[in-house]
Amino acid sequence: MSSTPDVVTSYALAPQRTVTADGVTFAYRELGPRGGVPVVFFVHLAATLDNWDPRIVNPVAAGRHVITFDNRGVGGSTGKVPGTVEEMAADAHTFLRALGHEQVDVFAFSLGGMVAQDLVVAHPELVRRLVLTGTGPRGGKDMDKVARTTFYDIARATLTRSDPKEFLFFERDAAGKAAAKAFVRRLQERTVGRDANIKPLAFLTQLQAIKRYGRSAPSNLAAFTQPTLIANGDHDRMVPSVLSQDLHRRIPGSELVVYPGSGHGGIFQFHEQFAPVAVEFLGRG
């Protein structure tokens, strides 16, 4: 009598896999129960598979098939980092079709949210539900200044021997500093099979892609029919919080959650409040 293998619902234990399509080998991880529409996580600037907060991923994976992946040329994925967000979206489409998925829910953060929007523009039938966090629309005001803020905070982090995400994602008050340290510790919970860090040239190429995105003509977000949840902190310095409000106004029927006293990583600082919101939203079917 055969037994059903245990379902992995901890991101720290998620098996690492690869799939090859169009000459690119994509690295990805899977967890949660199989079946139904998967939730695919689109990661942020300079991020690899190891940059997802398990306090966000694990609650979703408790009831859903979750997939995270490395963009082309990042971490364990081969190839060269694309120079535009549109190309990143095309890569995401290639990856998802290689896995055989006809429809997915998307959970996206920062640069991942930009990629997700371009994916919906190009392939609206592929995305069923959409979660956009810490991100903004194509052509959004001051979007092209992300590089300036990023380099400034990297310099500040270097001077204090800190992880740059502590400055980029969190406020520098007592609550923000504590949340930042806790977040960085959580990213180390996986102790085996960790991903390779992004290379400097790949990081700079992503920054240039964001700048082009910020200086491009806006997408027609009014055409989006996917139920959309938008979330951010109220003091996002990387992708200004007003851009979350802009997304909310432009995407019909979208829902907006803003966490006070937090920045770009508001959903990570307030993970105890946000994770149940995201799970409920994604579970509406």
From TrEMBL:
One annotated GO molecular function: hydrolase activity
Keyword Hydrolase on entry: yes
The UniProt record lists the keyword Hydrolase: yes
Keywords on record: Hydrolase
Residue ranges of every copy of the AB hydrolase-1 domain listed in the record: 39-268
Protein name: Alpha/beta hydrolase
Organism of provenance: Klenkia terrae
Classification lineage: Bacteria, Bacillati, Actinomycetota, Actinomycetes, Geodermatophilales
